[in-house]
Each structure stands twice: as structure tokens, then as C-alpha cells.
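Good morning C.,

I know you're traveling, so I'll keep this short. The sequence:
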Amino acid sequence: MLLAAPARDAIPAGSHGPAVRVVADTPNSFYVMSQNVRGTAFAYHFIRNVGGNSATDLAGSWPNWRYAGCAEFPSSLMPSRATPLRTFSNDIGAQDYAFVLPTSVGKFAGSYHGVGAGGSLTAESLTIDGQAFDPISSGAIGSEIVLAHSVSITDGTSTVTVTGFKVTINASGIFFDPGTISSAAALPTAYIGMGIATGTFDEGTFTLSSGGTEYKVPISVGSTTYGRIYLQKANMVSLRRTSDGATVRFTTNAPTISGYRRTSVVRDANLDRSKFYFDFGSSNAAFGSVTGIAWSQTCELGATNATAFAANLITNGTFSSDVTGWTATHGGGNIAWNPANGGVLRQTRHAAAIDAGAVQAVPTTIGVPYLLAAETSYAPTVEGSYLNPCSMGLSNAAGGSTSNPTPAYPPVAFDRNGYNAHIVIPTATTQYAMLLMRAGVASGQDAIIDTCDWDNVSMFPLLP
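The C-alpha cells, ready to paste straight into the viewer:
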């Protein structure tokens, strides 16, 4: 794996070598050293035959070469295991695709999570300037490298086929084309496009359309160790480490492809990383076939200062002594102050088929993106595997209607306890921030006794 970066002035200047150079490492690891437009070089790391083997992984095998990280060096002639100028990504986790098959609920499948006992690598090729090479026994040089593979991911009667997944590396960066991904099954989770930034990447930017305004956004965990921010259908996401300015930028056409669901970023302090996801999942219909997706990744240097974001528009979002300013809605539960963790708003649902909600009016500017965020802790009465029913939204109505939140982007349930945030875009000068405990019963839930604790609620406009 790539080593930690030292102080920048500890690295002497180096000469420039070939645009792309393959460096053998081990039978299951190699590097591509690529001279870049800045005059330095990136070392792209590829691995195989290693991956997830926990209770949440399909496992089986991890047969194909996959991207695992990138570090920057003064020159492409530097040894790949020398000390880099800086490390952008260094993680064996998935940076390509991952799925949840209906026959293996609670388990992820894919290049990192495993192709299953019945899955296999069906094709693979590695070329440099069109000529095949063996990354284990040769050190090829050239201008462009292409890695391609096809796999069958299988669990019982469910199968996903990935045909012609391609990674291209040249002086302009690293580019991903997942080829054709097909399944006759309904896939509740289908991430086609992921990327990892290693370290404290605590800020970012996003655009919601090609050539659109680039807005700054915090990538936070709040007072917890885990945070997820939903960026609607953002087609560009950058992640910046404010301590040194290291920036990883991901650009995609995924939102233009039929079936695209949403873009999100997860920051996990325990794993020391931030990770973006392009989501095509749906549990309502067969996945079918998706093709034409593409994304790119570039590693850049940005500013080292932290952004001063706008003031919080929420009144009493910390609940230090009461829940003043919040109104219970929906008739599916009540809200009350609780002294846990220094003060929280606690929702208790008392009607199994009705959401429990709390709203607060917020003055807004039409068309401007806002970040609505909060921390939540969900306590099921039956411990075990469960879905966190907490979610947030923005409404035009004081009653907090969830049928058509503004914009037409339904609240997304928290995937786990911690910090959660959504990009919301007002269509009126007064909107209502909603804290929701969604109706329904899942494993480990009691529909009318469970509680959700809310804290550190915030909402503020985002600026370019």
C-alpha cells in the first residue's frame, strides 16, 4: 500500500519520465506511474485477490484487477514505494461498483465485496498503447494504459453481469467506463461509480448540471464519527482536505442515464476517508441493463483554508433545554425534550401507518441550494438488524406533507446513526424543515414504541 506523505520540502525535485510506466510489485499488486500536466507524476495502485469477507460481504472471490488509490511523486521515474509528495487515496475498498442482490439482503457484492461462490471473472485484458502486458513480470512504458474486465456476480438465483468494465490512465487522469451492467433481479442498492479520498477530506464542491454553478459544501460527521450527505443528482463532486489542499474531483454523466437515483458522499472518521457514490438502485422493479455511464477522477491542489459557511437559519437546533420552535405534525407521534447527550428532540411514534414529524418555518430564497443537516440516534425496542427510519425533507406546507417535498426529491432514510444532510432547493420564500420518523416496520423495529433522537439541526444557503 502507499505510504504516508511527509513534509513537502522533504522531497527533492525529480526528472520527468515516460507518460505512463507500469511498475510490478507483487503477484496481486502493481502501480501505474503517470506523468501529469503539472509536471509531477501520479502512482495509481491496482490490486486483486483481496477484499471484504465480513458478515456484510458476499465474498467468494475478488478475481479482477481493481483501482485502490493514488499518490503524487516528483517524477514518474520515482519508485512506487518511495515516500510520496502527498496521498490522495489509499484504500482496498470498492472504487468501481457494488450491489445488494435480493437473495443476499444485508450483503454487498462486487469487486471488493466479492463475486460470490458461484461468480467468476469471465474476461480480462491489460494493454498499453494497444499492446498486451503482464503487470507482474514486465515494466511496460507508453502513453496510455487500459484495463478491462468482465465478471459474473452470483448469489443463488440472483446474478449481476458486468461486461467490459474499462479503466483508462493517461497524462490527463484516470477514466472509468463500466461497460454494460445487467441483472434480471431488483437491486435495492446499485452503486455504479464510487471513489475514495483518504484522510480528513472535510469540505467539497458540487454541481447539479454540466457547466452549472459549483457550490461549496461541508463534508462533515458533526459531533459523531459518521456522516452522509445527499447531493441530489450532482454530476460533479470534489472532496478537499483543508489541512493541505489535496483535492479529488469526480465528474460523471450518470444523472443523464435512465434509472439514476442520487449522488451521495459518506465521511467515516473510523475508516479515515470520504467516499462518493453514484446510485442506480431500486427495489421496485428488475434492474435491467445500464450502459453509457462514464466518470473521471482528477487529483488537484486547492486552498488550505477552511470555508466560512453561512449562518444557521434554524432556531433551537441544539435542544439544550427544550423543543421550542418545533411543531409536531402528521398525527403519527409526538415530540418531547429529553436530557440525553445534553439535550435532544425525541420523537415517539404512536401510529404504525403514519409518519411522526416535526417542522419549523425557515425564510428562504427561491432556487438557491441549502444544506439541511442533523444528527440522529435511532433506538429500536428490539435490537438487531434494522433500518433507521429517520429522514429529513423540505416542505411548502406547515403540515409537513411528505408526498411532495420541495423539490420533488423524497426524504431518504438515514442508513445509520450519525450526521445526515441533504441539498434542498426552495420554491417559496418560506419553507418548512421536516424531521421525520418514517412509518413502517422492518426487522428489529416496533412501529409504535421506537424513538428517534435529534440534535444539532442546521439549515443554511450554500455559496459558489
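Safe travels,
E.
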